[in-house]
Design a protein that fits this description.
The protein is about 10% helix and about 50% strand. It is mainly beta and about 90 residues long. The protein has one domain. The strands form 2 sheets. It has a 5-stranded antiparallel β-sheet, with no helix packed on it. A 3-stranded antiparallel β-sheet has the order 4-5-6, with no helix packed on it.
């Protein structure tokens, strides 16, 4: 899609991510949750990998509440990691 910049919107459990990486999360922190936008993600490994430009971020599966596709503002899809188990 031409002109699309953000591909995914990620919601992470906990506002502590703002303290760990303020440059990435500070503009997007709310009590109890942190959010970030990214270009791609991979949830097939032991950790969820989120890529944004040249930055690669890794999170435990239990920390990722929701990943939402936001390419088109009129349509969206989501991928949630909500099992809370061992994977």
């Amino acid at each position: 899609m031409v002109g699309a910049v953000v591909k995914y919107f990620v919601i992470l459990v906990g506002s502590h991510w703002c303290d760990i990486s303020p440059d990435v999360f500070k503009p997007h922190c709310t009590p109890g949750f942190s959010t970030v936008t990214c270009d791609t993600f991979d949830a097939s490994g032991a950790l969820v990998e989120i890529r944004r430009d040249d930055l690669r971020l890794f999170f435990p599966h239990t920390s990722v509440l929701l990943i939402v596709n936001v390419i088109d503002s009129k349509a969206g899809s989501a991928f949630g990691l909500l099992d809370g188990g061992d994977g």
